[in-house]
Amino acid sequence: MNDELRERIETEAEKHALVNAVKHESEADVGAVMGPLMGENPDFRQHGDEIPGVIAPVVSRVNESSVEERRERLAELAPDWLEEIESEDEGEDQILPDLPNAEEYDDIRMRCAPNPNGPWHMGHARMPAVIGTYAEEYDGEFILRFDDTNPEAGVGRPMLWAYDEILDEIDYLGFEPAEVYRASDRLETYYDHARRLIEKGGAYTCSCSGEEFSDLKNSAEACPHRDKDAETTMEEFEAMVEGEYESGEMVLRVRTDIEHKNPALRDWVGFRIIDTPHPREEAEEYRCWPMLDFQSGVDDHLTGVTHIIRGIDLQDSAKRQQFVYDYFDWEYPEVIHWGHVQVDEYDVKMSTSTIRELIESGELDGWDDPRAPTIPSVRRRGIRGEAIVEAMVGLGTSTSNVDLAMSTVYSNNRELIDDDADRYFFVREDHADFTLAGEFPDAAHPPVHPDHEERGTRDIDPGNRVRIEESDVPADGERIWLKGFGCFRKEGEKLDYVGDDITAVREEGVDVIHWVPADSATLTQMRTPDGDVVGYAEPGFREADPDEMVQFERVGFARVDRQEADDETVVYFAHE
Question: pTM, whole model, 2 decimals?
Fold first, then answer.
């Protein structure tokens, strides 16, 4: 890296560090700066291994400045960025766009309608995050409806344990549904509405094969069953309900416009026969099941939903359902369409079916494997639901596809956990051991938390040997500062104590590093999105409680998962 590039990196890093500090009214963080810095400067990426070392002193200088000095410096370097932050501050109360025609409704009711075919991946969190936030803003109600009317074997089949799992995930995100429905409990309601629709001439039974009807539909030709009288249709529908037909033998179609310009809207299927029993005991006897557009459309009306948010790719659903609403003379809810959300960082596709396949093949340990882009995974890593909600709400409701940077979630989470996370040392598997020499202190006393003197210090007995990471090993004759302990000079396989004068760090540029006693450190497995890491934590870490969030200095935040009886500790890495 030449001097010109280094100077560019330092300048850009200072701007991003200032933005990070000013926006969040806290100290800047190297990890939070790295994401936007590399994203906006692709030519920096080839120097990715060197950049943290270049920007760390810059971030430290920013953190040493006052709040007012940070604003003044940002105004000097990037006035537009400061203006944008101040504009966001002024509009903090307006988190999301106004709901359309909200003033026309006495109460706002919005629904989240998942298929309980497994835990949620990260993309699923967007709907409850936004709906829950709208419900809070409008003093409205968040309705949860499990759309579980497809018991067929396959990726869409409901899983019994997923119902409670999803409810637990919504609670984790910070919301509580006002009402919870299971569509599989409501079959008789759908049958009643199908009968009413038949009486109104809005539906007919059809025994065409799927291929036959597709050919007719695409040619805008009516199938031979379309003019069937209501009495015959009713008899055949009752036979469907009684299970007298086999799968594929008979369907009930909603009569629309067979010449509609959009073939997808022509006489669509409202009910079909499924021979596979539903996994819920309460619904296992049913064989005639509504299609999602029929079931969802009826439920939205009956449960008083005022506003629906759905993907831009589901625009046809509203158009299909509108035919049913017209037959019943119902008012259709307000609809907001949005684009898909993509999440960076993960190698695993954000797909329930893909994740399940990887679990079943043994490539992932489970839904909470740190490599999986799922809610159970980030939760086990110690990411707070609030951090996810804030990031999702920040994406808005654009019809364009949007990208969620996990660095945003991590930045939000850092603010939530930093103050409470005690500090510890952790040395990763690529390490070197050194014998201590000279008149060094009996113990090291690094602070429990650098911002909370009242919490005191950790007392670490170094013994006669210490362990440091390979990347921190200095050249012979050079000095390093073992944090909380003192200054040492490397002499072959030894580290000679040379004193505790902090000017070695402040004025002479001696590196401050983390370390652990080689003979008493705690063997620790760290599970991360990039794979498992084995290392050693300082002895006192054995006292950390499961589920506690800690920060391994110069490594990152982690959640204590369990303390094993065989003296091994397991933690899940959260973020830097």
Answer: 0.82
